[in-house]
Amino acid sequence: MNAQRYKIIATKTQPRFNRPKNIGQRQQGMILVVCMLVVLVVTLIVVSGTSTSSLEEQAATNAQTYNRTFQAAESGISVAIDDQDMMNEALDDNTTCTSSTASVQTTTPGVTATVQLTFIDRNHSDGDEIGTYVAFRFDSVGTGEMVDMKSATTIRQGFNRRVPTGDNNTKVPTC
Question: Which of 20, 113, 142, 147 would staple 104 via disulfide (CB 3.0–4.6 Å)?
Fold first, then answer.
């Protein structure tokens, strides 16, 4: 009777399913899950890097466009400061004291530049050993534009023009 009892106990401790004999057989499905997670992480890193590089490219394009329009506006102001006819036109205009808008030739294709002068006021200067001067103050507004990129930069700069008082160029507008 004892022999049957041990036999029953031995059958109760056996598992209902067959366990694999080594650990490698037990983890065979887990390697697929780990590989899929690694592939997913690598894919996310690649997609993130791609979107970051496209944002950096857009930022570089915007900086280059701003630089081109800024340089065009600066060249317009430089031309206006040296253009005596524009200053005379602003001095001759008795209603707005403003010259007409002038287009400036640029060397960059697709970039245009315009400039306009406005007479601000006139000051007398004591002068130096040569004689006395009249200082005319002007405000210049230069605009550089790239129509294709829908971008424009406007720069405003003031400057003075000293003219000897004996010169015929000392007219003063009434505006």
Answer: 113
